[in-house]
């Protein structure tokens, strides 16, 4: 099997993984919709006119609707999380949107705290659909059944908070599925990949696929790493593993001519800011 055949095989395998992820998310959404029972028949009309809701109740409902609208209007995963934090803060005295990766929790956004809260303490609150004795609640934020974060809140309306979290999770899930579909549709739409020798074209495409997969499955860490300028400390392990795969597939004479993998890391993960990855801690000794 030639080198180009090996790269083509690896490319097809990774493409299949993206396709499988898209199908899994779509099937999960269909199953969830199918499981929703039909609405009950409307109750008989009341004998007497029901009183109008109180001003405070109407205002609370309007806050909830406005929060859902803001989540719907978000155009990225990070904007969805920000909208969730802002909407929850209007309904609770203290709020924190937490993210988890590799068993570790970090705060995405907090509100109402006098000082920076201890994330471990917030994450230790039992994940339950009810307040604890101190009025605290932690509601899991899941995408396709996998917990990616949580909403911590104090003294808030539980029903409203749960609605916001569930809606944000569905929006995150939908956007992830859309990104997967878009990545599949655009895999052959990079004209720069078609210039140079066959080996160089294959190397560029393989680098792009490896790095795009990191971004697809670690979107929140990528965004946070750009913002906090600690991209390598957050994703160094994932980038290193992808680099190993790249070095194993791409011949050394191609790697000596150009570092397509590093170029793709800078372009896709660092958005062109080479200073975020200038140390290149992910590099490993290439096999000669």
Note the beta-strand portion. 5-15%
Question: What low-confidence regions span 5 or more consecutive residues with pLDDT below 50?
Answer: 49-55, 284-288
Which class of secondary structure composition applies to the elements? alpha+beta
CATH fold group of the largest domain = Beta-Lactamase
Q: Kindly give the count of domains.
A: 2
Total of helices: 10
Principal-axis shape: elongated
Distance between the termini: 19 Å
Mean pLDDT, to the nearest integer, reads 78
The proportion of residues forming helix, as a percent range, comes to: 55-70%
Q: How many strands appear in the DSSP assignment?
A: 4
Q: How do the strands of the widest beta sheet line up side by side?
A: 2-1-4-3
Overall CATH architecture of the largest domain = 2-Layer Sandwich
- The gyration radius over C-alpha positions equals 23 Å
CATH superfamily of the largest domain: GAF domain
Biggest sheet, in brief? Answer: 4 strands, antiparallel
CATH class of the largest domain: Alpha Beta
> N-to-C SSE series?
HHHEEHEEHHHHHH
Describe this structure in words.
The protein has 288 residues and is α+β, with helices and mostly antiparallel strands. The protein folds into two domains: 123 residues, GAF domain (Beta-Lactamase), CATH 3.30.450; 87 residues. A four-stranded antiparallel sheet has the order 2-1-4-3. Helix 1 packs parallel to helix 6, helix 2 packs antiparallel against helix 3 and helix 7 packs across helix 8. The longest helix is centred in the N-terminal third of the chain and has 33 residues. It starts with a helix and ends in a 19-residue tail after the last helix. The C terminus is likely disordered.
